[in-house]
Specification:
This protein is mostly beta strands. Helices cover 9% and strands 33% of the residues.
């Protein structure tokens, strides 16, 4: 599966073409991913590799991704309609969303520089203004694009693309929200991203192959009592390639 494969969506509003940027990025050549590998040294903060943490207290187990539970946080599982695979998770706190997906990566080198260049080129081609800046997690993309709302009005949205290269994995985050997320308006979702733990299995995988997630209702512990599952999914967030799955209405 490619890093940003194009997905169907149930969105009702008409959105500008730049909404599909995350689905339009090219897929790299397939090669076997080596097993083994050491966690990077000198890491000051997460996202973390499973080998770098000693406990799972307070984290929600989604399979390849474990994220901290924050009071008032909403979760939404993102589903690939073609394969019925749980492809990602979206966190919403105070109107700011963070979509997270984990992928296999080579042991010898990171892939964020290459992916960032591809996303930037696609965004610019579709008319967005893009800046490659240094953020709290290293290099990131800050994009500004116009979207058409249901009432026909156009709204300027700010989108941040985060990327972290770990030991044999790559974690992508997309923060979407009002203009304030370009400064200090995304602190809450940044804190969630910072404490994510990525669980990379020992299976040899092609670079950019999606690491599958599962419904948080699977298993016990923290997962068992986080929140009820909403029967009716809400409207998909911008730049979320997979289809929205079950929504966990609130934590805490």
């Amino acid at each position: 599966m490619g890093l940003f494969g194009r997905r169907g969506t149930s969105a009702k509003r008409e959105e500008a073409p730049v909404e599909e940027v995350a689905a339009a990025t090219a897929v790299a050549d397939v090669e076997a991913a080596p097993t083994g590998g050491e966690a990077p040294t000198g890491r000051e903060h997460g996202p973390w590799d499973r080998s770098e943490v000693t406990d799972d207290d307070g984290r929600i187990d989604l399979g390849a991704i474990q994220l901290p539970g924050v009071p008032g946080m909403q979760l939404r599982m993102e589903v690939d309609r073609a394969s019925n695979q749980t492809a990602g998770v979206t966190v919403v706190i105070d109107g700011v969303s963070l979509q997270v997906q984990a992928f296999a990566a080579p042991r010898s080198e990171g892939i964020w520089d290459e992916i960032r260049a591809e996303i930037s080129a696609s965004l610019v081609e579709q008319g967005a203004k893009v800046d490659d800046i240094v953020g709290p997690f290293g290099r990131e993309l800050l994009a500004r694009a116009s979207f058409r709302e249901e009432n026909g009005a156009r709204t300027m949205r700010v989108i941040r693309f985060l990327g972290v290269d770990g030991p044999r994995w790559f974690l992508r985050g997309v923060i979407n929200g009002p203009a304030e997320i370009a400064t200090d308006g995304a602190a809450a979702v940044e804190a969630v991203f910072r404490e994510i733990v990525v669980v990379r299995d020992g299976v040899a995988r092609a670079p950019r192959e999606l690491l599958e997630l599962h419904d948080p209702r699977v298993g016990g512990g923290v997962n068992a009592g986080i929140a009820r599952i909403a029967e009716t999914p809400a409207r998909p967030a911008p730049l979320a390639p997979p289809e929205r799955g079950p929504e966990i209405t609130q934590i805490g």
